Amino acid sequence: EEKLNLDDSQWEDIHVVTGALKMFFRELPEPLFPYCFFEQFVEAIKIQDNATRIKAIRSLVKKLPRPNYDTMKILFEHLKKIAAKESVNLMSTQSLGIVFGPTLLRPEKETGNMAVHMLYQNQIVELMLSEYSKIFG
């Protein structure tokens, strides 16, 4: 409802833009990875064989509602570009996983497994960035 002036100098600060992006995803009524998919993604990231793990994640991504899939594809394509400039911005796929994992993917109800979930959330985002073409291609 609020009108934003994107010509305002505050939007020149990359931290403001990044914070706004994270806040947008954090405040969605349901995460970009819908709650009903949380456990399935966690189980998929636990798969030991890398090729099988990628196939499982790809299969889950393809089952997402179309708006989630489309948004995710564009977001991860953008984050992949950020990771490609790691030498300048210091944001590796691992760093992006830490920053965006808990924002994009979370259980509906937090349990005592919060630290374990965070590890998996980070790993899922990291894998999706490093294997973007295999997952979204």
UniProtKB/TrEMBL annotation:
<dbReference type="GO" id="GO:0016020">
    <property type="term" value="C:membrane"/>
</dbReference>
<dbReference type="GO" id="GO:0007165">
    <property type="term" value="P:signal transduction"/>
</dbReference>
<dbReference type="InterPro" id="IPR000198">
    <property type="entry name" value="RhoGAP_dom"/>
</dbReference>
<dbReference type="GO" id="GO:0005096">
    <property type="term" value="F:GTPase activator activity"/>
</dbReference>
<keyword id="KW-0472">Membrane</keyword>
<keyword id="KW-0343">GTPase activation</keyword>
<dbReference type="GO" id="GO:0005737">
    <property type="term" value="C:cytoplasm"/>
</dbReference>
<dbReference type="InterPro" id="IPR008936">
    <property type="entry name" value="Rho_GTPase_activation_prot"/>
</dbReference>
<dbReference type="InterPro" id="IPR050729">
    <property type="entry name" value="Rho-GAP"/>
</dbReference>
<protein>
    <submittedName>
        <fullName>Rho GTPase-activating protein 15</fullName>
    </submittedName>
</protein>
<feature type="domain" description="Rho-GAP">
    <location>
        <begin position="1"/>
        <end position="136"/>
    </location>
</feature>
<keyword id="KW-0963">Cytoplasm</keyword>
<dbReference type="Pfam" id="PF00620">
    <property type="entry name" value="RhoGAP"/>
</dbReference>
